[in-house]
Amino acid sequence: MGTQTIAAHQVMVQLFMICAVWGEPLSQTAQSFMPELLYGANRNLSKARMLLKSLVIVGASSGTILASVAASIPWLFPKVFSSDPQVIREMQKILLPYFIALFVTPSILSLEGTLLAGRDLKFISLSMSSIFVFSSILLMLLSSKGLGLSGCWFALVVFQWARFFMALRRLTLSNGILYSEEATQNELQKLKAA
Prior knowledge:
Keywords: Membrane, Signal, Transmembrane, Transmembrane helix. The chain is an all-alpha fold. 80% of the residues lie in helices and 0% in strands. The protein contains 8 helices and no strands. The N and C termini lie far apart (50 Å).
């Protein structure tokens, strides 16, 4: 990769990082309100599922708006970042994977916030570790095929969507934290003690 490619990558990474945190309030909302619905005195799994559904819908809506605005800036106004035509061309080459990765980020944060609220830390650590390893291998494979910057961003797309589907699957299991009506008194006592 040349200097222009690295410059384009740096611009897009900075933009992605600025935009990725905008979904964090959804995670904080899940972490604030889910514990009471999952383990509190007024335990109500139906309301917890409705809250998660609302958070994912808000995440998808805000992800669409956020990704659209964030992708349109380098597409419509690339000279804000660089006047070099090669840098602009490299930035615009990766707009599709950039959009796809950013689009799903707020929904991921709401799902992971719910998993954190449910104290499913073992699953979160195992799934993130395995997704990271898989994505790293994919990145090395794409890099060896000469895909360069596009390969990096498509690996990020795979990483993000794997996070989304793993968390969604975990939360929608029939014996998962949002559907398991038979929480024993022992489990509830352990949670109260923690």
